[in-house]
Target: Branched-chain amino acid transport protein
Amino acid sequence: MIFAIIIGMALVTMIPRAIPAFIVDKLQFKEWVNRWLNAIPFAALGALIFPGILNVKPDQPHIGLVGGAVAVVLAYLGLNVIVAVLGAIVTVFLLTM
Model:
């Protein structure tokens, strides 16, 4: 019985996540929609990270701001989100050494 509940919960969680992946491949969006969709990861990243930028070292907030600026520059250059995050991490690490 417990196993059936676990399988049911897994399906209920998986189906809403899997269906859009199959549908989006078959849809053709206008160019402005594609640009907007491509910006979502960076917008979400900014919303999640910005509060922490000022708290990297509370007595030295400029360290977090410099790391955030590096991430913004790397993102503006069109690099991958992972590269932007890693660039910010390395920058903050080097400034706190």
Remarks:
- The chain has a mean pLDDT of 88.
- The chain has one domain: 2-96.
